[in-house]
# Entry
Amino acid sequence: MRIVVHGGAGHTGEVQDGVETAADVGWKLLDEGADAISAAVATVVVLEDDSRFNAGTGACRRTDGSVQTDAAVACNDGRLGTVAALEDIANPVQVARLVMDEDFDALAGKGALDYARSRGITPAMVAGSEKPWAGDTVGAVAQDASGAIAVASSTGGVSGRPVGRVGDTPHWGGGLWTDAGIGIAATGIGEAISRRLLCFRVAQQVADGLSLAEALEWGLALYPADVCIGLIALSDSEGAGASNASMPWALRQD
Ligand code: ASP
# Structure
């Protein structure tokens, strides 16, 4: 069993304690027998509820002052659930988790909000925060005792982007990827991540024989130093995190 958690590439605040707390929550759940999806989602909920992070309650505002969030959950059993440009939901990762069990993969905007409401999630005003930096999204990758791997991510996007902008977080293969023996989540400038299909391509490097750490470095090397990027990943034998900027992250494994 293992879980790796991040609090966003480029986070300038002292938030390592928040990531450690979230990792402890996910690890305890795994230790008690929870499946990888439940552990990854619960870990991200802890970070969404910590307003120092750019997700859920602390999501950054768009140029028009609105708060819109993206989130994703995927399992290497083949299921995927994503939401994009979702307003008035404190824990968007929980909506993505519900979408995962539907016969569609992605909901956006009003449709996502209506769906959340129909599934018993009560909308609440999310004040968001005036973060002076871009980034600080959150994510977790967990592997449970059965060997299943799940990835969960949540973000308020990147500060200064327009209403309706969707980043990499719900972008399959870009912001997240999981397959047999691998799970990866990205953070940083979403447009740069999506355009390079980052998580899928990093997973291909592992399939081609690189270690997890080498594959993450391969991914970071695709970018110039001023494009903030971070990655966390698990394989069947190890966990790793890496960033070309400061990125709080934590790993628990047995
Ligand atoms: N990747 C996220 C986005 O572009 C932001 C982040 O990771 O901090 O929406």
Notes: The CA atoms of residues 76 and 179 lie 5 Å apart. The mean pLDDT is 94. The chain is about 30% helix and 25% strand. The pocket of aspartic acid is lined by residues 8, 54, 135-137, 155, 157-158, 167-169, 187-190 (CB under 6 Å).
